[in-house]
Design goal:
356 residues, alpha/beta, Isopropylmalate Dehydrogenase, ten-stranded mixed beta sheet, two-stranded antiparallel sheet, binds 3-isopropylmalic acid, binds magnesium ion
Length: 356
């Protein structure tokens, strides 16, 4: 098969982890007889430096014309002083919206070989962590109206959170379909004791659930959910929630696995095209030092192979290569424990390629 992949290297450690991941994709292409064509799409701080804006039209066009998008990470302190409409993050939000990527999937899974890095008490960790956060990605307060004005001599800021039924319904369907392939339990998270958007969320998800009688649906308030994720994460299978709650809970969920540098994510809308990225940020403190862990991005590429290109064997090969490298004891700094063999970003990439 021939596939065109838009490549957003981004800022900080982005270029290093994406570089290694393209090497892994090349190894997959060679082994399985595919052709992957990479099209560079500058976005984020580097695009502000070069073009003055975080998402140049040419990059957006490249992404829209590709079969999928691979993203490293964007942002960093260098661009903190940018006006909010021109921050690196704006580029990402605009791209999500323009591509119609309404579903963000972030697995929280503890790798058996890395269970010692789990920050939870060992009896809690022993029950296992294997759930998925399905986050609504292009609605809610992120995309409501934002205003700052002076009222009665002081500044007043307003961010509007809004949801329509169809925005809730389409992401709820994704969650139920995913649960069907897993342990058949959806936990919908909201703040229905306070927010109208949450009351609509709860009502709409409950209505969608009628089409999935084989899947159990539970509702949970977001404050309770934040607590339950550390108290007993084994109770969760598929979590579905709105944009801001999902942003917060998915960071919490990835951290309890002990290996935030290892976790990939996918963003999808209608159709096969998606955007794939690691969960972690641009880590400017270690950028350019060959210290970053490329595994989150490599596993994001595996998700791309599986979900956008329907290449299950190829995705399996990538995931098996990562497992094998970990089994052999190779570790980047973020997941290093006693007895591990410390390697940098480049060497980790090479080891993974060698196992493809
Ligand atoms: C994420 C990030 C983004 C978000 C930022 C960079 C805009 O935190 O992907 O979770 O809030 O969605
Ligand atoms: Mg976030």
């Amino acid at each position: 098969m021939n596939k065109t992949i838009a490549v957003i290297r981004g800022d900080g450690i982005g270029p290093e982890i994406v570089g290694e991941t393209l090497g892994v994709l090349d190894a997959v292409a060679q082994k399985f007889g595919h052709t992957f064509t990479y099209k560079e799409a500058p976005m984020g701080g580097c695009a502000i430096d070069e073009f003055g804006v975080p998402l140049p039209d040419s990059s957006l066009e490249t992404c829209l014309a590709s079969d999928s998008v691979l993203l490293g990470a964007v942002g960093g302190p260098k661009w903190d002083a940018q006006p909010s409409a021109n921050r690196p993050e704006r580029g990402l939000l605009k791209l999500r919206e323009a591509m119609g990527l309404y579903t963000n999937v972030r697995p929280a899974r503890m790798f058996p070989d890395l269970s010692a890095a789990c920050p939870l008490r060992s009896d809690i960790a022993a029950r296992g962590i294997d759930f998925v956060v399905v986050r609504e990605l292009i609605g809610g307060v992120y995309f409501g109206q934002h205003t700052t004005e002076t009222v009665d001599g002081e500044q007043k800021a307003v961010d509007i959170m809004s949801y329509t039924e169809h925005e809730i319904r389409r992401v709820a369907h994704v969650a139920f379909q995913m649960a069907r392939k897993r342990r058949k339990r959806v936990t919908s998270i909201d703040k229905a004791n306070v927010l109208d958007t949450s009351r609509l969320w709860r009502k709409t998800v409950t209505a969608v659930a009628e089409e999935y009688p084989d899947v159990e649906l539970l509702h949970m308030y977001v404050d309770n959910a934040a607590m339950q994720i550390v108290r007993d994460p084994s109770q969760f299978d598929v979590i579905v929630t709105e944009n801001l709650f999902g942003d917060i809970l998915s960071d919490e969920a990835s951290q309890i696995t002990g290996s935030i540098g290892m976790i990939p994510s996918s963003s999808m809308g209608e159709g096969a095209r998606g955007m794939y990225e690691p969960i972690h940020g641009s880590a400017p403190d270690i950028a350019g030092q060959d210290k970053a862990n490329p595994i989150g991005t490599v596993l994001a590429a595996a998700m791309m192979l599986r979900y956008s290109f329907d290449m299950a064997a190829e995705a399996d090969a990538v995931e098996a290569a990562v497992d094998a490298v970990l089994k052999e004891g190779w570790r980047c700094g973020d997941i290093m424990q006693g007895g591990g063999k410390l390697v940098g970003c480049r060497e980790m990439g090479r080891l993974i390629r060698e196992h493809i």
